[in-house]
Write a structure and sequence with these properties.
11 strands; about 300 residues; globular; Rossmann fold; about 15% strand; alpha/beta; binds nicotinamide-adenine-dinucleotide
């Protein structure tokens, strides 16, 4: 007699998570920007101001410089000493605001404690604010108007769009409420009709909320905070975190275990980071176009 086997039910097949390859997408965007720039009579100009020698900032700006020059941009790096005062910085910003060869500028954050980032960022002309941190650009983002968007949230939205990840009606849980990532990405997701929950350091039961999420955006700065048991099967996980561990950079998400349950996930490095740089270059070109339009009015 033939033996019959009873199969365990339900049978669950672990599907491999899609790796959301920000590095490849960013390369494609930079290649397109290079072609666009080649066809222009004038190079887009990007200036970066750094204050002090924060090693992470030096590394990030180095990446921006390489990408900018690679895409054919005019790139200027203004380096100031740690003890630079506000007046000196404001006068540099004023010069860059007037400089016709500079279309976009950023002040690399964080700034030393004695400097007010609000005062410094407010001084950048709204049309030259390539980081999208100026209050008027953030107000336009909040209102859902055309705006120069902060580069990291813009890069996240571009990844989601590129991989056709549906957002309307989905529950997005954003961990982190910073002005540069958490708050703007929450509003951008909201504009795409996601239902958004914002979590932060005082959130009572983070795991209970992340477990309900269709999309998780982790922007905290705490290595491997998001574990497998905090993620619903099939969720999309975006890891913004960049944490130093020895000589490696690791994310806020425990990538190796979370990718077993996620349907899609960004790696660190190679996910959101390269997209931030590509979006900064895109923003600079947008700044240039806005300035051209304003000059013909
Ligand atoms: P931030 O320090 O300004 O904000 C961190 C946020 O995390 C805060 O809102 C805080 O309330 C929240 N938080 C802290 N501990 C928490 C906890 N245990 N549970 C829940 N929330 C908690 O940081 P940021 O500037 O938004 O950056 C966040 C991370 O993203 C950092 O690792 C940073 O290096 C990285 N980052 C990466 C890029 C990129 O291009 N990949 C860009 C910007 C920031």
């Amino acid at each position: 007699m033939q033996k019959s086997y009873i199969l365990p039910f339900p049978i669950t097949y672990a599907m491999a998570a899609t790796i959301l390859d920000g590095k490849a997408l960013a390369r494609e965007i930079r290649d397109n920007l290079r072609k666009q720039v080649k066809s222009l009579t004038e190079k887009p100009g990007l200036a970066v101001i750094t204050v002090g020698n924060d090693p992470a900032s030096q590394l990030y700006v180095g990446g921006k410089e390489k990408a900018g020059i690679g895409a054919g941009y005019h790139f200027v790096w203004k380096k100031y000493k740690e003890d630079t005062d506000e007046i000196t910085l404001l006068s540099e910003i004023d010069k860059l605001n007037q400089d016709k060869k500079i279309h976009g500028m950023i002040v690399q954050l964080p700034l030393p404690k004695h400097l007010s980032p609000f005062l410094i960022i407010d001084a950048i002309r709204q049309e030259k604010d390539a980081d999208g941190f100026h209050p008027l650009n953030l107000a336009n983002l909040f209102l859902g108007r055309d705006a120069i968007l902060p580069a990291t949230p813009k890069g996240i939205m571009r990844i989601l769009e590129h991989y056709n990840i549906p957002l309307a009606g989905k529950h997005a849980v954003v961990i982190g409420r910073s002005n540069i990532v958490g708050k703007p990405i929450a509003f951008l997701l909201l504009q795409k009709d996601a239902t958004v929950t914002m979590c932060h350091s005082m959130t009572a039961d983070l795991a209970a909320l992340t477990r309900q999420a269709d999309i998780i955006v982790a922007a905290v700065g705490k290595a491997w905070l998001v574990k497998k048991d905090m993620v619903k099967q099939g969720a999309v996980v975006i890891d913004v975190g960049m944490n130093k561990k020895g000589d490696k950079i690791i994310g806020d998400v425990a990538y190796d275990e979370v990718k077993e349950v996620a349907s899609a996930i960004t790696p660190v490095p190679g996910g959101v980071g390269p997209m931030t740089i590509a979006m900064l270059l895109e923003n600079t070109l947008k700044c240039m176009e806005v300035q051209k339009k304003l000059s013909t009015r």
